[in-house]
Structures are given as C-alpha cells and as structure tokens.
Amino acid sequence: MNIAPDILIAAAELIALCKTNGEMITTAESCTGGLITGSLTAVDGSSSVVDCGFVTYSNEAKQGLIGVSEDMLVIHGAVSKPVAIAMAEGALSRAPLATLSVAVTGIAGPGGGSEQKPVGLVHLACAGNNRPTLHRRRVYDGDRHAVRKATIIEAFNMLAEMTDKKPV
C-alpha cells in the first residue's frame, strides 16, 4: 500500500509519543475506511501502541460494533457531533487494551453532500480513559483523497493532544 510520506512521518511521531506515554490506540472509522489504522500499522513498532480498529462505514456497523444508538443516527445523522462522540466512546469501551480512541465520520465525496452537510464535512472525536472527549468539526477542500488525507492528519493531531492530557 502506498502511504504518503507525510502521513508515515506523522504516524511514526504519534507512535513514538504513545510509546513514551504508555498509550494504546483504537479507531472507529467511517469516511476513512480504515486508513487511519492502516497508516499507523505501516510503521515499525506500531503493535506496541495499536490495539484495534473498527471500520464502521454503515449505520448498522456503527450500532452493532461500537454501540451507537439507532435513535442518535436517526435524529442527528451519521455525520454529526453526537455520533462522532458516541463512536469514539463506544470504540474505547469495546477495545480490550486501548486507553485512547479516535473516531471519524464524514462526507468525503464526490457525492453525498447537502447544503447542511457539504462534501468535505468531517466530524472527529477523540476519547481517553478518565479524560474529557474532544470533538472537532472540519470542512475540507479538495477531492475525496484530499478530504481523507486531511482527516487522517487531524485524527493524529487529536490523539497527540489527548496523550498530553493523560491523567496522573
């Protein structure tokens, strides 16, 4: 698999940070379809910080694998702040070794957008044991590849930020 050099560098930096701080990562990915986990595991030594990844592209997978409620999906839609937060918290609760999780749900395009939820909209959330869950809403420019790449980088940034908030 060809992974962009800047993504590999960012992944290696995150892995080193998590090793130093004793963190284990899980992911819950929709619009990135496993690319966050794939980018992390492309780095030597990633097994010491990556627990598992959930690819929850469908609403049914979000419900069955990581416990997002059907009501939440109906009320807010899959691409929303509440669903991203539920994905991150659900993945963290279901990953046996993880201390951190990141979740992404969005519209990478080229189709599927609307006036309220345009192509490029991504909701990201990061949860950590005994730490408040972070959320970010982003609207990225560019094609599907650009949206997904920007999402991966932002996910890595959020995990690094959460690592710095490790409880004592």
From TrEMBL:
Domain CinA C-terminal intervals? 11-162
Q: Which domain of life is it from?
A: Bacteria
Protein name as annotated: Damage-inducible protein CinA
Please give the organism: Thalassospira alkalitolerans
